[in-house]
Amino acid sequence: MKNHTETITSLNHTYTINMGGTRDGVNTRDPVGYSPYKQACEPNKCARLENIGSTDIVNPWIIVNNKRDWRSIDRILAEILTDDMTDAEKARAIWEFACNHRYHYTCATDEVKDTVKMLNSYGYTLCWDEAFTVSNLWQAAGLKIRRGYPHGHCTTEVYYDGAYHLLDSDEHLLYLLRDNQTVASEEDLSHDHDLVKRGHPYGINLEESREREEGMASAFFHTGPRSGGRPQLTTHKMALTLRPNEALIWEWEDRNKYHGHWDRPTRLANGRMQYAPEISQYKTWTTQAENLQLKKHSLSPTDPDQDAHLDLTIKSPYVIVGGKINLSLTSNTLVSVALSRHNDPWQTIWHSDTNINIKTAIDLDTHFPPDSPASYSYQVRIALKASPDSAVIKDIAIETDLQMAPLSLPALELGDNTIHYTAETGGDVQITHTFEESDSSTPPNPPSNPTYPPLGKNVSGTQFTFSWPEVKGATDYHIQVSDLPDLKYTLSPVFNKLISKTPSQKKAQWQIPHEGLLNSTQTYYWRVRPRNADGLWGNWSAIWSFTPLAPSAPLSLEIHPNWEDRTQTLKWKANPQGNTPVHYEVYGSNERGFTVSREPYEVIVGNKETKTFPANLIATTAQTSIQVAGSTIESGNHAYYRVIAVDKNGVRSGSSAMAEAPRPMIISPPPEQAIANQTYTYQIQAIQSIGDLRCESKGPRRYFSAFRDGDTLRYLLDEGPDFIELDEKTGLLTAHPKTQDISMHTVTLRVQNGQGGMDMQGFDMCVIPPQKNRDEQTIQAFGAQDKTASTPR
Fold it and tell me: In this predicted structure, what is the pLDDT of residue 539?
């Protein structure tokens, strides 16, 4: 164990501590994510800041390596932002900071909606907390926000570049539009779930999971008007006044003391404040002193026939979770100790039951239960009962336990650490850092060069496998990919991966999960770091670069209906970026937000139930338009379409944005004739959506998912002869014309989809005489094929 002690007499002082060894908290810690992070080593034990002078010191603090000065929301922003940042850069920087300094948990009170309290005392939030803590920062930085509307989740969107964008620091949600640059809004995600399904929710410490991605997509469905903001809930400041003989101790030990209504959090630290006031100076530190006098360095009643007491206050910038009071006194009468929190009435917590010299430790833990209101101060009263035999107070020492967020503590790291002490008023302080140095494990060396993509070279396609030489002793790797040369941020959470959380675990490689997540001809940057079995990270590799070459996703998809012919034509524009396409693949589905697939694929259809959907490639063409709906189309007639561009080498682009067909359009042609005395059927076919996966609540329970908001078709006969029947639900029209019905009959049909959409079809049915020598029979009109042939997919 090592100690470094610094005695300071000035308002500002800077000093350096070198920490040797090979392990510290940073290089043995998981990347911080949604789930509680793990950490293999913590060499820091405590940092003690003590007033050893004779005057109060206002707001003394230490900042290590210019990090974690989070005493106010302004100071937090000063660490995150620079003066030259755009609004977009501010929004992203704040989101990155928020993601990297908390995990998913809560105390179930508004404590963690205050950003300063959360970062310093807790280090965790649930979504309904985090939606406030991150918006507190955005608003303090001058950015406009609005509340989100997902199911069973709380989010806040931030405004920049003329639009709102979803940056969710609880579940680490950042989804890019098809340009792979613009951060999507919640409305974008509600319109097209595939933007979510090609992302990575819940952060780096959870596995790649199609089920999780589809489940997250089901939370977004509101496409209507949006309104509402969030109040700023950060008022707390880490204000501290240290009196003589008072100390604040930052400690990394978890003593299982916390504030909150839930079970104990996974990661916490317990520091403390210690106060041993000088008895002879009692008039300076008591808030009230009645009938007391100083006599031989002890306190005793001035008038032994009168009760006496003293009151003192303990104040902390951190939430108080327990403690103890040490008393040394001589008493021939009753002595009691009372406690008050939140200015509540005094509660007696101890009294003497002997008449001899007393040294006692009064436990405060039971008076600060986890589920009680949070306290940042309390009052202590020591009372002496009137008696001819006086009592004498010799010493008082109060220790107050505090809850501290581990990531907020003034941690030393390997190598030289620069520590800056600052205070608003002068006085003598002593700072002691206690730590240990560990070289029990050797960090693995990073790979010196990539295997694929080759350094600085072009690479074919946008979905490929990164690889690098295996590192001796490495059991895991961390890969990051960015469009920024300095890799300040990754491109999106998809490109920030622990290999152990991917299908490539235990291998020196990682495959991009989807086509089209990178832009053709744009240079990207990547790096890797290895981790050994002891949980020790090696250094990052050098930053490598590559440039993908591929066609880019087609643009401006539109569906042009021809109501006269009852057809629909899909049109698009070639993307000028990237390789020249030689043909296009057209995909269609009746699922809103569908994902393109050339093979049958599994889809979550509700509460973890999966079904196999058919492949949805319906056509290829060298043109930039194609008829996709009509009576002669065998594999079209869908509600939604996407297009992929393919170059001469067979390299594909990512899928385009989704085009939505006008619906319900009736695409089946009616018959022109019916024969008297014969039964005639006509199955009406109309374009129909099955909706998308959406969650609903059942009472207080959330996350009941199913395909919802699809089209419910209703078929109506607005005009027609008496011999016609139309099934309202199935759209099957049945005619039973008789000989007396031989003539021309007007028929008008209507179909409604329950979404405000409607189509009508009118035709004239000519009933002709029966043919000789022909039995009565049922005639199916064109378009009356088995309805399962056009089952939505």
Answer: 98
Q: Judge if 356 and 258 occupy the same domain.
A: yes
Element at 256 (helix H, strand E): none
Weakest-pLDDT range from 22-26, 49-53, 786-790: 786-790
- Contact criterion met (CB below 8 Å) for 515 and 652: yes
Residues 167 and 121 in one domain: yes
Q: Are 696 and 151 in contact (CB under 8 A)?
A: yes
Q: Which residues of 261-294 are buried (b: 16+ CB within 10 A; e: fewer)?
A: eeeebebbbbbbbbbebebeebeebbeebebbee
Distance in angstroms (rounded) separating the CA atoms of residues 418 and 579:
51
DSSP 3-state of 365 = helix
**Per-residue confidence (pLDDT) for residue 780, from 0 to 100:** 53
What is the pTM (predicted TM-score) of this model? Answer: 0.94
| Domain's final residue, options 533, 548, 563 | 548
HSE-up (13 A, CA, CB side) for residue 126: 14
User: 791: pLDDT confidence band, cut at 50, 70 and 90?
Assistant: very low
Tell me the C-alpha distance between 408 and 396, whole Å: 31
Bin 291: left if φ > 0, else alpha if -120 < ψ < 50, else beta. Answer: left
Query: End of a domain among 190, 217, 244?
Result: 217
For residue 364, give every residue at least 6 positions away whose Cβ sits within 8 Å of its Cβ, in sequence order, or none.
322, 323, 324, 325, 339, 349, 400, 401
Task: Please indicate, yes or no, if residue 333 is contained in any of the structural domains.
Answer: yes
81 backbone φψ class: left, alpha, beta (φ>0; ψ -120 to 50)? beta
Within-domain flag for 226:
no
Q: Does residue 511 share a domain with residue 381?
A: no
Quick one: tokens of 748?
């008008």
Give the whole-angstrom CA distance, residue 616 versus residue 83.
50
Residues 271 and 401 in one domain: yes
- The number of beta carbons lying within 10 Å of the beta carbon of residue 613 is 18
Same domain, 534 and 592: no
Query: Domain holding 517: CATH number?
Result: 2.60.40.10
| Residue 245 belongs to a domain | no
- Indicate if the alpha-carbon torsion angle 450, 454, 456, 460 is positive or negative: negative
Taking the C-alpha atoms of residue 105 and residue 263, their distance in angstroms, rounded to an integer, is 10
Is the same domain home to 146 and 275? no
What residue type is 758 in one-letter code? M
More reliable by pLDDT, 359 or 738: 738
Report which of 302, 287, 316 is spatially closest to residue 391, judged by C-alpha positions.
302
pLDDT beyond 50 at 782: no
Asked if 261 and 395 sit in the same domain, the reply is yes
User: 157 vs 149, 199, 500, CA distance in Å?
Assistant: 10, 18, 31
How far are the Cα atoms of 198, 356, 459, 514, 523 from residue 509, in angstroms, in the given order?
Answer: 20, 74, 16, 16, 20
Distance (Å, whole) CA 509 – CA 452:
9
Same domain (yes/no): 726, 760: yes
CATH number for the domain that contains residue 340: 2.60.120.260
Cα–Cα distance for residue pair 510/528, rounded to 1 Å:
11
Range of the domain at 577: 555-660
Positive or negative, the CA dihedral 202, 203, 206, 209 is positive
d(CA 531, CA 447): 12
Longest Cα–Cα distance of the chain, Å, equals 134
CATH code for the domain of 139: 3.10.620.30
Average pLDDT over residues 523-549: 99
Q: How many domains does the chain have?
A: 6
* Contact (CB, 8 A) for 655 and 197: no
In single-letter form, the type of residue at position 597 comes to S
Contacts of 742 (CB under 8 A, 6+ apart): 676, 767, 768, 769
**What span, in angstroms and rounded, lies between the C-alpha atoms of 427 and 50?**
11
At 336, the pLDDT band (50, 70, 90 cuts) reads very high
